[in-house]
Each structure stands twice: as C-alpha cells, then as structure tokens.
Design brief:
0% helix, 3 strands, mainly beta, single chain, 3-stranded parallel beta sheet
Length: 71
Amino acid sequence: DICKETKNEVLDLSRHKLKQLPKELLEFTWVKNLNVKGCYLTNLINLPPNLEELDASNNQIKVLKKAELPN
C-alpha cells in the first residue's frame, strides 16, 4: 500500500509515479496534509475535501486552475 496514514492526518504519496490523483481521495475526509512531491502530476484534480496543506513540488504542473482546488 502506497498510503501512509498517521495520527497527524497526513497522507504521503510522494515520489510515486502518479500521473493524476485517484478519485478515491475525494472520499478521504481525514486528510488535512497531502504530500505528492516528486510525482508526475500534471494537475491537482481530486484533492481531498478537507485539505489544509499541500506539497506538490517537483511535478509536471504548468497551470493551476481554481476549479481543481477544494472549496
């Protein structure tokens, strides 16, 4: 399993060869901190709804659309 859940409400998917975030993340209401550093993401669609902190550095994202961000 590539997910690392901790009591700190952190999900670490860093350095995995993800081209996009899985739709299942939309159901991960416990995630407040998401690390997707060093993946191959081109967008941030499917971010968890209660996200407070995101590290998406070192990806292939060229444009960030407001519609990709949680409310």
